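Continuing the batch. This is chain 6 of the set; chains 1 through 5 are on the previous pages. Same settings as before, nothing changed between runs. Recording input and output for traceability.
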Amino acid sequence: MKKIIYILLGMMLMSCHKGRTYFPKEIETPEIEIVRFDKALMNVQSDNVQGTKADILVLYDEYPEFMPLWVEDILGIPTEDTTYLVQQLPQFLNDTVYGFKQTNAREQALFAEVNDIATALSKAFARVSYLYPETEIPTFYLFVSGFQTPIYFGEDLIGIGADMYLGSDYEYYNRVVYDYQKRTMRKECIPVDVVSAYLFRTLPYTSTKSRLLDQMIYRGKIMYLTAMIFDDLKPWEVMGWSKEQWKWCVDNERDIWHLVMDKRDLFKTESLVLTGYLNDGPFTSEVSQDAPGRLGIWLGWRIAESYMEHHPEVTLQELMAEGDAQKILEESYYKP
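Output for chain 6:
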């Protein structure tokens, strides 16, 4: 467990409509430090074999937890095969065809300081720990992934793939992702991505049912909880949408719900239906080409919000523990 310091958080967290207080003004806040594996990696000598090998051994010595994971899972090289690693690592650092050298340079410049990320994570995990006192604060590592993953989980650690957050306008993203994915590939999106991924991992889906309704409510609850933790953000920022996309959904909420109900999609279990509503994409084709992707998660969020508004006695922990999606839907009285 990281060292705990006692500080004052600013404002109490209120629910959007009922003024409910979920967190106290004063809360124990973990002192989070982000380990700069990315900087250490960029210091590896890549112009001679002996220097590369020596620096690789230093990385194994100084980062005994993360270095083997990075080699195995990011580079895809057996961690014991240092000979092959000595051959491949210089290419990862200096390649210009795939843009790794340019990307590594941009990452170092953009992430010269990460105090803002550490502060946001400290406040967020203070609230997670308040809700779940058994929470063990992980060690955070900043690394480069070769455009492979934004958030990486190991035992007692979370890695942040900084090269996946270089700005929506970064030219090399055109080679590896779709346009609709670029919106959240910004440095300021990291805290929400980390915490929401952590919540999905630590509060797993437990329902034995595989209907759209059950998945929708589960994921919507996670987003509702994430929004409560990041109460200083706008809801569309938590969702990873633009303000215009959120407004479109709110303006058309009644028609969206009626369409979903008329099609009886809530009770379907076909994978194409589930992925259509829940997976990211340029739009949600089951509803409209104007509807942003992951519309089903947004609906689940709205239902969870309505449920909490109608049940002021229910805590956030109780909401997350409630596995009966049908009950949440019925007792939410959700009627847009």
